[in-house]
Design brief:
0% strand; globular; mainly alpha; 277 residues
């Protein structure tokens, strides 16, 4: 069985974030500060047009955010506390601490690698859009009125979209890693395409409300700090940067915890692999 109720998983994610909000804020404070500083650096150098370099500025935030996601996943799924509580049995505590340290480290590294790949792809596409595509359009001249996308291009687009949806499972590999699940076993268990659709549904339920909150915050900030002649004010730019840093962490935490609940439900209904904690 590789399917799960994505609505229930998302609901559990929201419930965890609300019920444990004080603990979540405490553990997320330092990663938020690091992310905010990295966002400020990207905003300050946004005018250079080098989108690939912007991804490098965010590397410290990737490490901090990956560590945070691993901590929250274990807090949600295993009921762990922060700071970690020890039982008093030195041998058992040391064994648990080393196992926990290994899973958090592996999850963080996987998270950073995933974010770097996504940053490279998005930066490359933005650079291409601003350079190569613009040059081709200028060389080709205005499109003829009768030009329409061919059936081949439509099929290529559909195939690319289907591939991206399937690859969504790879973007969440840090979740089973944080839970101590063997990744080979995990990928073998979630082979059906439907699993990626469930992941997509979970992500949408977690991302859309946060995106709406960002739009509302942008509208409020532009009213408080209006720009001059269509140019956004400095206060608006950095205010929106701070709000974006907060909401991105919230969206990532919500989706990570929700997906962790979904994966846990898959393993709880079947045989657990040896590495499932």
């Amino acid at each position: 069985m590789s399917s799960f109720d994505f609505v229930e998983a998302a609901a559990k994610g929201y419930q965890f974030m609300w019920e444990k909000r004080q603990a979540v804020i405490a553990v997320a404070l330092v990663p938020f500060v690091i992310k905010l500083l990295c966002f400020v650096a990207v905003t300050a150098f946004a005018g250079d047009g080098n989108y690939l370099r912007h991804g490098l500025y965010l590397i410290p935030s990737y490490f901090a955010e990956g560590w945070l996601m691993a901590q929250l996943i274990r807090m949600a799924v295993f009921g762990e506390s922060w700071p970690i509580a020890f039982s008093g049995d030195k041998e058992a505590d040391l064994k648990h601490f080393m196992r926990r340290k290994r899973t958090i480290l592996s999850s963080t590294i996987i998270y950073v690698l995933i974010k770097l790949v996504l940053a490279f792809l998005s930066g490359y596409m933005l650079d291409a859009q601003g350079g190569v595509i613009g040059g081709l359009e200028q060389a080709a001249g205005p499109a003829a009125p009768g030009d329409e996308p061919s059936a081949l291009m439509f099929l290529i687009g559909v195939g690319a979209l289907a591939t991206m949806i399937w690859a969504l499972r790879l973007a969440y590999l840090y979740v089973p890693a944080a839970m101590g699940i063997d990744l080979v076993d995990f990928l073998a268990r979630v082979k059906p395409y439907m699993f990626s659709l469930r992941l997509l549904g979970t992500w949408l339920l977690c991302f859309v409300p946060v995106a709406m909150a960002l739009v509302m915050a942008s509208s409020i900030l532009v009213t408080i700090f209006p720009g001059v002649e269509g140019t956004p004010s400095v206060a608006f730019t950095y205010g929106l940067t701070a709000v974006q840093a907060v909401l991105e962490i919230v969206a990532a935490a919500l989706s990570s915890v929700a997906v962790a609940y979904g994966i846990k439900s898959i393993y709880d209904t079947g045989n657990r692999p040896p590495h499932y904690l």
